[in-house]
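Make up an example, fold above all:
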Amino acid sequence: MSTLLNNTISDLSPHMEVTTQTVRPQTINNDHPDPQVKVRAARRRFTVADKLRIISEADKCTVHGQLGALLRREGIYSATLISFRKQQDEGKLSKDTVQVRKDKLTRDAVIESSNKRIASLELENLKLKTLLDIQKKVSVLFNLTFEQQNAE
């Protein structure tokens, strides 16, 4: 039985190595990609303008079948249209996504510069505290107090 199975499998593909346990593809030395590997398609991203256009066209559909034709033409599902409408109701379609990203980058830059400023001020504060400690030690060493300085 295994001989019949091995002969059948080896007849199907000349690029297969047949063993009694597994069937493995042999390495092929050519420039073509392996046809069994599926390339994952990139997801479609709709701009705010596209979403608003599709919503407005969907709102204009009154006759039975027009909405389905619109969805087929745009290549989207009804759930996607529902998602667009939900985003519109939440106010997420009021700004363009590019502007939102720029705002986020600007906000991140402000936070980063603020953090740098805080770090430099903390370092300066540490230096001033050290200087104050040195002044206290010098005044103790020379027996100086504020009352003596005010009396002079």
In short: The longest helix spans residues 97-141. The chain has a mean pLDDT of 79. The beta strands are 16-18, 23-25.
